[in-house]
Each structure stands twice: as structure tokens, then as C-alpha cells.
Design brief:
By secondary structure, the chain is an alpha+beta fold. It has nine helices and four strands, in the order ααβαβββαααααα.
């Protein structure tokens, strides 16, 4: 059951990231068509993507921790937390990540870093105080799974691809709307069709990209739930922690924002935006996650 869950989510995640790449190639081709070089357009899109990826790869984790106002802790501060992280690191077969806390009464946590050797686990003080031993272990096991599976790198890539798609779409919109197009006269209806197609894609691509990013995030959460259970051998620990998170009357993590919300074990902004927010949620329904854990 657990291994089937892991395999299924990995396949779906690969499919979703492939759709991202296809959208970028199409936008690059449209740019190339407009400038009169269908090869140059995709190359430009590729180079922009590489620049974004390199910046995120080497500096993204530090930026996330700084934005979240996270503070590094040691064993004297929170011995139980440190012992839990160390024990589950051994179980996962990865180096012990750095440990950070966010001063906040909400129950939440997230993992960051480009690889298991350059990783960190961040937990709110609310989670430390309000979760029992098994529940905290379940939460840490979930975050360890994100680190072991390179989920953080994967999600950072998804965020970057959204940025690239938005950038390219904006470029196409501005070019098509504000150019005179005099040098394109004589190309007939085909050029008109291409322009209309480009405008439609330019308008819809950022929305599609955001929806795909959230879908990728939801799949990775299910995967981390399953993998975390493999580490702790106790699915009810995480299930009970998620119940406390679900029933938390003040779930907002003050330091969280739209850029970092997808990294948390449960969306810290879920009470903002009303019912329509569920379509754009970076996390699957918490009750569905609990149901799956209880069946394991």
C-alpha cells in the first residue's frame, strides 16, 4: 500500500513537470516566430530558465529561511526536537539537517535546502509545545521524507518554472499588443492566427502554470506522508498531528507568504481567500490525508 502510493505520486509528479516544460517550449516558439527565428525563441526561453534555476539552486534556501524569520537552534534549546531529528535522519539514511524554529503559536513545519547535505528542518514553537512525542515525530518524519526525496529542490524548480512562464507570457503580450507589425504584412491569415494563439496562451499560461505548481505540491505532500510513515512505522502519529493542525483555531503562520506556503506541512494561509482558495491550494485536503494515513 505505502509503496504503491509512493510510485503513483512519483509518476504523476514527473508528468506534471513535463507539462511545464512543454508550455515553456511553446511560448519560446511563439516568441521565435514573431522575431522571425523559430530556433532562437526556444533557446532564449531555455537560457532564461537556466539563469533562474542557478540563482534558486545556490541561494533559494537561505532566502526562504530569512523570509520566514527562522532561528537556528541547538540541543540545549530543544533537546527533544534535536534528538527526534537526529534519530529520523539515521532512519532515513541522510545527514542530520540544520534545525530552525519560528516563534509562532500555530502548529506547522517545513523543510528547505537543495540536497540532503544542504538541508534544514524548520518547526514552529507552537508545534513543539502542542504536539506530543509521536505527533512531533510524525511531522519530522514527513519533512525528512521531503529532504530524502529532493522534494524541496523539485518544488523550487516548479516555482521557478512558474516565474519563467509568467515572464515569457508577459513578453509575448507586450510584444503583440504594442508592436506595429508592419514588417509582418503580407503573411496573411496564418500570422493573424499565430498572434491570436500567442495572446491566448500568454493570458492563460500563468494561470495554468500556477494550477500545475499547486498540483505538483499536492502530489508531493501525499508522497511525503507515505514515506514519513515508512520512517516512523506509525501512521497515526502524523494523522493525529494533522488533526490538531486542522482544528487549530489560529493556523496562520505570521512569517509565511504565498511564495513559501507550499513548503509547509499544511497550508499556513488556508483560512485566507474563502472557498475559491481551495482550487489554488498548495496542499491536498487534510481530511483526505488523514484518511489515507489511517488506512496504512
Amino acid at each position: 500500500m505505502i509503496y504503491d502510493e509512493i510510485s503513483s505520486n512519483k509518476r504523476k509528479s514527473i508528468l506534471l513537470i513535463s507539462i511545464f516544460i512543454i508550455v515553456i517550449i511553446i511560448l519560446g516558439y511563439l516568441i521565435g516566430f514573431y522575431i522571425g527565428n523559430v530556433i532562437l525563441g526556444p533557446i532564449m526561453a531555455f537560457l532564461i530558465s537556466i539563469i533562474f534555476i542557478l540563482i534558486s539552486y545556490f541561494a533559494g534556501d537561505k532566502l526562504i529561511l530569512s523570509m520566514s524569520h527562522a532561528k537556528e537552534v541547538n540541543k540545549k534549546d530543544y533537546p527533544h526536537l534535536v534528538n527526534t531529528v537526529e534519530g529520523l535522519s539515521i532512519a532515513a539514511g541522510i545527514p542530520t539537517p540544520k534545525i530552525y524554529t519560528i516563534e509562532d503559536s500555530a502548529i506547522n513545519a517545513f523543510a528547505s535546502g537543495r540536497s540532503p547535505k544542504h538541508a534544514a528542518v524548520t518547526v514552529t514553537t507552537g508545534a513543539i509545545k502542542r504536539l506530543n512525542r509521536e505527533e512531533l515525530e510524525g511531522v519530522i518524519g514527513h519533512e525528512m521524507s521531503h529532504i530524502k526525496n529532493y522534494d524541496v529542490r523539485f518544488m523550487m524548480l516548479a516555482v521557478l518554472l512558474v516565474g519563467v512562464i509568467t515572464l515569457l507570457s508577459d513578453f509575448i503580450l507586450r510584444t503583440f499588443l504594442f508592436s506595429r507589425g508592419g514588417d509582418r504584412e503580407g503573411k496573411g491569415g496564418i500570422f493573424v492566427v499565430i498572434i491570436l494563439l500567442g495572446l491566448v496562451l500568454a493570458i492563460l499560461s500563468p494561470l495554468i502554470a500556477q494550477l500545475l505548481k499547486f498540483a505538483i505540491s499536492r502530489k508531493r505532500e501525499f508522497l511525503a506522508d507515505a514515506n514519513g510513515t515508512l520512517l516512523t512505522r506509525n501512521p497515526m502519529g502524523l494523522a493525529n498531528a494533522l488533526k490538531k493542525i486542522r482544528d487549530d483555531k489560529e493556523p496562520l503562520v505570521e512569517a509565511a507568504n504565498k511564495a513559501t506556503a507550499a513548503l509547509f506541512i499544511e497550508n499556513p494561509l488556508r483560512k485566507i481567500g474563502g472557498k475559491i482558495n481551495s482550487l489554488f491550494s498548495s496542499h491536498p485536503d487534510v481530511n483526505e490525508r488523514i484518511r489515507r494515513l489511517e488506512k496504512m
